[in-house]
Amino acid sequence: MNFLKRLSGQKLLGYPFYLFAVLMVLIAILIVNGIFEVRRTRSQLYNILETEALVVIKGLEKNSGNLLAILSQDRPPLSGPGIVEGSEESLSIEDLLIERLINLALLLDQESAQKKDSPQTLEDRLARSGLSKVYFLKSNAAPETWEALPDPLKTGTPFFQNVLTGKTRLDVFRGEGPLRKTLPLAVAVARRFDQGIILLPVSFDEYVVLSRQIIIQGLLEDFSGKGNIAYLRVEDARGKVIAQTGEPFFMRSSQNIKRKEVRSGDPGLFWIRGEGGEFLEVIRSFQPAGKELGVVRLGLSLKEVNPIIDQGMRNIILLGAVLSGLGMISLFIIFRLQGRHLQKMKEMEKQIRLKEEFSAMGQLAAGVAHEIKNPLNAISLVVQRLEKEFVRDNPEEQKEYDRFTRIVRNEITRVNQIIGDFLMMAKPLDTILEDHSIMDILNYVLEVMEEEFRQKRVLVAKELDKEIPLIICDRFQLTQAFINIFNNALEAMPDGGKLRLAVKRVRLSDFRFRISELEEKDSTIRNPQSAIEIIVADTGKGIPPEALEKIFAPYYTTKGKGVGLGLAITQRMIQAHKGTLEVQSLENQGTTVIIRLPVSPIQ
Length: 603
Description:
The protein is of the alpha+beta class. The protein has helices spanning 2-9, 14-68, 88-113, 119-129, 143-147, 161-164, 204-223, 248-251, 305-389, 395-423, 438-448, 450-455, 475-492, 516-521, 545-548, 566-576; strands at 135-137, 170-174, 185-190, 197-202, 229-235, 241-246, 258-261, 269-274, 277-286, 294-301, 434-437, 458-464, 470-473, 497-507, 530-538, 580-586, 590-598. The strands form four sheets. The chain has a six-stranded antiparallel beta sheet with strand order 6-5-10-9-8-7. A five-stranded mixed beta sheet has the order 12-14-15-17-16. A hairpin with a 7-residue loop joins strand 9 (277-286) and strand 10 (294-301). Helix 3 (88-113) crosses helix 7 (204-223) and helix 9 packs across helix 10.
């Protein structure tokens, strides 16, 4: 606070705030300019798309005008007077019309079999298909049924006689000469779900309308999907759809379409959002051969346009963020420079205090080692004498006796090693690296602690890979590290539980290991490719979240009798082997310790 007051007295506080205000004004100007620039870019891109749409519409009008000329009311279609009979385009159109009529007959037959052919349903179906009459005929049909047929079909032998008698399943009537003005086309299809036939006669007016739909539908499908075209629809003056193709959502009666005028007062250009994305819809009158037929709706996809607009917005946001960052940096740089010296002083004070702690710990460890050395040597001599003088007659008993005395001697050696481990908190570790089996180390630790596991009713479950490679390690250090970890697990399960021990080989690329120091100590170790992962998981009381961040700090402990060096020493041992140690814990659910050690590169 005094520091801030002193800066304020020197008029340093005012400068950053003035700079901040100027930068905010510049950023506001940039944002406003960016918004107008994005709108201008969007307008230009929409104009380009609109021009593309108008070109397509003109092409549709020209091509459809040429084809629709043959269907003009004042010129008989196909083979009548004034038309070259057998015109390739005319025959192609008529073939498509015949195919549509056949499909309609099959659909009517199926609906009739499913009892969906009520008079109203049939009338609606015919209205949607562009026809006014359909006949369901049988060979024994009443005379009045035959009388209702169009006149050209009542003279002579009916063209559908072979279909009615079952000799063929399909026949087509094509009116010739003057008949084309009365009945240009009729199709007879044998029924699949009932007896008789379905007869679909097409009057001249219906022929013109249906042929026009086929022509326009074919042209729409030719243009659909080209460039940015997403959908096309041609409607007559009453809004009835003549032909359409493109996006499925647009061809359905969907209510999930959001529509907005692009230019105020322009009803011919809309922005649309539907299930298929965003589109620019252009609406224009449709005038093939100069004769107005209705309107055409052409939708252009904005998939290629939106990224350009979005990129412009991102550039504005990025530039604003950069200027804001520069403003913040400029605002705090003076305070950071003034506070850097104070921060360095605090860090130096912390380092000196830590060195003093390490020095005191080293002196304590040296004193303890000196006081314990002679008693340990005496115990070691006694154990050696016991091994030599007390020989058992029973080989099994002798084997068990030797095992216990060996454990005692090994533990005496480990106690000496523990005393030395205290010193590593004050000086670098003297690590002797050799190839060892991690399973030998773990099995030894489990054997040493077997009685403790039994007494505390802790079950050890092992999950081991079949082949565990050797690792480069100091056997005594890792033994002490795992004893520390197992002890912590036992203390977390005072009422018993389960200890899971998993050992497996993992790829080194999945983790980060620092091996530069390892290579300096042993030049034969180069680029280890994999690691051994050891997982020790208990079902104990776990570690509170606030304590989990402090567990590796020297002297930090949650135990009544602990000194807070166990995990700190363990972590340093693992790091000395270029490995990693990770602790995961949930309170009242258990703790998992994950250790990863590099594999010997010779394997």
